[in-house]
Design brief:
By secondary structure, this protein is mostly helical. The chain has one domain. Helices cover 71% and strands 0% of the residues. The protein contains five helices and no strands. Helix 1 packs parallel to helix 4, helix 3 crosses helix 4 and helix 4 runs antiparallel to helix 5.
Length: 97
């Protein structure tokens, strides 16, 4: 396994592990979301966005003001990881010239 693959694996698992620990050992996830479906979908498909939302969520206020920039940054990071994985899995075509 090359170091790039290991780094990709660590980066993709890190937010999920942090969310899992937050979910198991604190009540931040259950306070930030009503129900289980939305945080579960966020855990699977948008972990950086979900983690950012949980971290900036404030009891009584929710997410407001500049905190939304962190949530949007998490979304952009999630979309960037999907785009990078798509770019990395494209077939290598060599042109004969």
């Amino acid at each position: 396994m090359r170091i790039g693959c290991l780094l990709t694996l660590v980066i993709s698992l890190a937010p999920r592990m942090v969310l899992l620990f937050l979910w198991l050992f604190t009540n931040r996830v259950s306070q930030a979301f009503e129900g289980i479906l939305l945080p579960l979908l966020g855990f699977l498909f948008l972990p950086f966005t979900t983690l950012a939302y949980v971290l900036v969520w404030n009891p009584g206020e929710g997410v407001s003001g500049a905190a939304w920039l962190l949530v949007i940054g998490g979304l952009l990071f999630d979309l960037g990881t999907y785009a990078a994985s798509r770019y990395g899995s494209r077939p290598n075509v060599k042109l004969n010239s």
